[in-house]
Design a protein that fits this description.
Number of domains: 1
Shape: elongated
Order of helices and strands: HEEEEEHH
Helix content: 25-40%
Radius of gyration: 18 Å
Strand content: 25-35%
Number of strands: 5
Mean pLDDT: 89
Low-confidence stretches: none
Number of helices: 3
């Protein structure tokens, strides 16, 4: 049996260690349950891989069940920068995990984000 000619073509891709940006997104999602007294559940769902990197969606759902709502999308390319889709006019580019945390805190304080949570708490 002949060896696969593509086996060596990929080289060493390495093992991806825990991405600190993903950890920030998980903490953000976990904070939503606490902020709503458990009435809204939030999680991360892997989306598409695009030219902006791996897409991650912060999805919300009333704890009693119902339709999921995408609160925001984060695109994580290789490296430290992140592109946030906060359903504004343009994507927001942040350059580090700490900058991502700051941007998510600002978004959590926005009327649009709070309104989404208030609506879902009522369902």
């Amino acid at each position: 049996m002949a060896a696969n000619p593509f086996e060596d073509a990929w080289g060493d891709l390495g093992q991806e260690a825990g991405d600190p940006r993903l950890a920030v997104l998980k903490q953000f999602a976990e904070s939503i349950r606490a902020a709503t007294g458990g009435r809204v559940v939030a999680g991360l769902k892997r989306g598409y891989v695009t030219n902006l990197g791996q897409e991650w969606r912060v999805v919300l759902c009333p704890s009693e069940g119902g339709m999921e709502v995408v609160l925001l999308r984060a695109h994580l390319p290789v490296g430290e920068e992140t592109y946030l889709d906060l359903y504004d006019a343009e994507l927001v580019k942040v350059g580090s995990p700490s900058a991502l945390e700051g941007q998510l805190k600002a978004f959590a304080g926005s009327a649009a984000a709070k309104d989404n949570l208030r609506v879902l708490q009522q369902q």
